[in-house]
């Protein structure tokens, strides 16, 4: 009897001490990890910093920020997705995991995943690694009524312009965004995004990727077509410096400053890059008739699409092309199929809910090189000399498609339930 009693009570004690033992081991492990991280701040960085490139503009002391610059029409239809993207890094997800789960180690089979969680949780508690800036058209107010995401509250520029497609006003809006973001010296990288852009990875990966390169990411190539360069520009912008490329650039601070302070190239764009430039002196009524005339437009139109040339050409004029990774971080799927309207001959495809399958996202993430027909150049995507996937962002995504990304967990966010579209 006594034996039996003795045998039956210890398991309870064992169970309890086992639990405490486990907790204690967990605690020790956590302590080791934190000490290790403290002395190896580089560890979180999956892309080692390229030491071959140093320059004076990298002198900022402290945690560098990435400025996310949203060029929006009105509201941000994908704010709920970005909310999740930013939220992972400001929530103390690590400690909550620790409290809620005794066997937290099992939850993180991947060490990388685990470390990024800690890094975001503890080091980024004050959102000190990013800032958000939004340019919406005049008259629109981005506030608690128009967005549920706190990351966008109070982030609208006070100054804005009416953006007209194909006109230099687009560049003006970009300049305003960069100027506002430059006020914070911690902003060291500047990512230009549209209101239909989505992130393809979590914040930690995105941050490491962008910060580990000392260069800007600017899609830039020699534009061999004759339609967009106006020979009248040649006194200021020689034909040899004229470049073309995606509008969606990521700039280092030095290059952002070049764009904001530029009073040389921009006025030329403003003067010559007008829609229907060849007919700009004609009366409005006649212009309208001409605009309706399909054949006439196709033949005579000089439309230089300034946003696809300005940053590229400006950086080339300033002879800093070697400080640029000549590719964009934003994926766009172009539809070149014959369209009813010539204006849509080359237009970006919008991903709707059925198009945003996990397999498709995986394919986009798997792209590791870009081929340029111009110059027969193939750009193998690298970050700090490590071959990597090319794209961190993608466009154009509908609300339904973005919601699907979140629900499918295609972007690797941890907690995709925080904010959903209203
Ligand atoms: C947001 O701005 C609009 C327009 O100025 C205003 O009518 C509305 O009351 C504001 N909402 C909040 C919650 O401040
Ligand atoms: C806009 O102006 C207000 C008041 O002048 C200021 O408090 C706010 O920070 C400004 N917002 C931005 C994004 O600059």
Automatic annotation (TrEMBL):
One of its GO terms (cellular component) is membrane. It is found in: Membrane. It is a single-pass type II membrane protein. The keyword Transferase applies. Keywords: Glycoprotein, Glycosyltransferase, Membrane, Transferase, Transmembrane, Transmembrane helix. It comes from the Eukaryota. This is Core-2/I-branching beta-1,6-N-acetylglucosaminyltransferase family protein. It comes from Linum tenue. The lineage of its organism: Eukaryota, Viridiplantae, Streptophyta, Embryophyta, Tracheophyta.
């Amino acid at each position: 009897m006594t034996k039996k009693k003795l045998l039956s009570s210890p398991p309870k004690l064992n169970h309890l001490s086992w639990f405490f033992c486990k907790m204690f081991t967990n605690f020790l492990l956590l302590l080791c990890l934190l000490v290790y991280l403290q002395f190896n701040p580089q560890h979180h960085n999956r892309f080692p910093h390229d030491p071959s490139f140093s320059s004076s503009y990298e002198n900022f002391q402290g945690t560098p920020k990435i400025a996310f610059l949203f060029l929006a029409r009105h509201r941000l239809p994908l704010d709920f997705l970005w909310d999740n993207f930013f939220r992972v890094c400001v929530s103390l997800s690590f400690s909550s995991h620790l409290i809620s789960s005794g066997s937290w180690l099992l939850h993180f089979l991947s060490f990388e995943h685990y470390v990024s969680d800690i890094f975001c949780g503890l080091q980024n508690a004050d959102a000190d690694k990013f800032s958000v800036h939004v340019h919406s058209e005049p008259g629109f107010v981005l506030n608690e009524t128009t967005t549920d995401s706190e990351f966008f509250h109070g982030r609208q520029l006070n100054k804005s312009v009416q953006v007209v497609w194909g006109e230099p006003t687009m560049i003006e809006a970009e300049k305003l965004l960069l100027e506002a973001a430059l006020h914070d010296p911690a902003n060291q990288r500047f990512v230009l995004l549209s209101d239909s852009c989505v992130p393809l990875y979590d914040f930690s990966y995105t941050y490491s990727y962008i910060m580990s390169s000392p260069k800007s990411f600017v899609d830039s190539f020699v534009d061999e077509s004759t339609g967009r360069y106006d020979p009248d520009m040649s006194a200021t912008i020689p034909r040899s410096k004229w470049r073309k490329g995606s509008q969606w650039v990521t700039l280092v601070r030095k290059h952002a400053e070049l764009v904001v302070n530029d009073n040389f190239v921009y006025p030329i764009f403003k003067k010559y890059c007008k829609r229907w430039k060849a007919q700009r002196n004609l009366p409005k009524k006649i212009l309208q008739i001409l605009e309706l005339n399909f054949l006439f437009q196709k033949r005579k139109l000089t439309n230089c699409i300034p946003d696809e040339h300005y940053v590229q050409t400006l950086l080339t004029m300033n002879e800093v092309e070697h400080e640029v990774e000549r590719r964009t971080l934003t994926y766009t799927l172009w539809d070149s199929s014959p369209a009813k309207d010539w204006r849509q001959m080359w237009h970006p495809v919008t991903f709707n809910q059925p198009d945003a399958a996990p397999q498709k996202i995986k394919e986009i993430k798997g792209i590791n090189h870009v081929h340029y027909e111009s110059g027969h150049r193939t750009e193998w995507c690298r970050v700090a000399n490590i071959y990597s996937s090319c794209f961190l962002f993608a466009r154009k995504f509908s609300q339904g498609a973005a919601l699907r990304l979140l629900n499918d967990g295609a972007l690797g966010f941890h907690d995709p339930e925080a904010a959903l579209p209203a």
